[in-house]
Amino acid sequence: MKKATFILPIVFVLGLLGLSSVYIVDEREKVLVLQFGQIAAVKEDPGLAFKIPFIQEVVRYDDRILSLDTAAIEVTPSDDRRLVVDAFARYRIADVVQFRQAVGVGGLRAAEDRLEGILNPQIRAVLGSEGVTSNTILSEDRSLLMQRITAQARQRALPLGLEVLDVRLKQTNLPTQNLEATFARMRAERQREATDEIARGNEAAQRVRAQADRTVVELVSEAVREAEITRGEADARRNNIFASAFGQDPEFFEFYRSMTAYERALQGSNSTMVITPDSEFFQYLDGSMGLAGN
Question: What is each CA distance from 2 to 5, 6, 8, 13, 43, in whole angstroms?
């Protein structure tokens, strides 16, 4: 019984020492084994590994591709049109030993602060270099600028044990004070274009209306001319008929003309006439013409 009492603590201590000496390296990370603050071993292959308990400690670093969003900065291209840009970078820890020596216990946070301190000056330098205008930055040609920034940042990040894989611009905007002026200029330009379009539309409408009025006048004139021609031809035919009828029977023609005169003189309420007793107007009604004929 006493023997078991001594054995159990020993087994417990041995088990604790065994567990403390074993650690697992994940395939997504790199591991440094530190002994009294100094690098004792580097483990990059995944699997089980061993360390001296309570003397050595394990520090893990991410081996995946990481991303960093930089703060917005103001750049001035060669055309003096200021822009506010913010970028993001993709990077990885290439040399974990050099990384530890460069950033110490600050780890990834300290490394990103120093990496941003590298990226921002390079972005300003490249985007503000000679021949680079705001139009270049806003066009498809900015991919070449990003390649230049990436190459320069990669060289300066090597002492940190970092490999910069890519740098890209996320947004490119005008400063706030310039943005309002630009919007006002754009509004004025659009209003001017709208005014020009309205003026051109009114001019086109005036031309259409003038053409329509001219067409109406021409059509009316043509219709009046054709009507006058038709009326003249009808009058001529009527006169020819009257002349032919007068030539064949002058007395009947006189009778017809008198009947027409009676019809026109006695229209509507006009049924009263004042004439002399010997007037020839009603000669066909008083029987004098008939008696004369007999």
Answer: 5, 7, 10, 18, 44
pLDDT in tens, 262-288: 666 666 666 666 666 666 666 665 555
pTM value is 0.56
Per CATH, the number for 66-173 is 3.30.479.30
Residue 255 makes CB contacts below 8 A (sequence gap 6+) with 284, 289
User: What confidence tens digit (pLDDT) does each residue in 64-113 have?
Assistant: 999 999 988 888 888 878 888 889 999 999 999 999 999 988 888 999 99
Domain ranges in the chain are 17-62, 66-173, 176-247
CA-wise closest residue to 42 among 58, 55, 53: 58
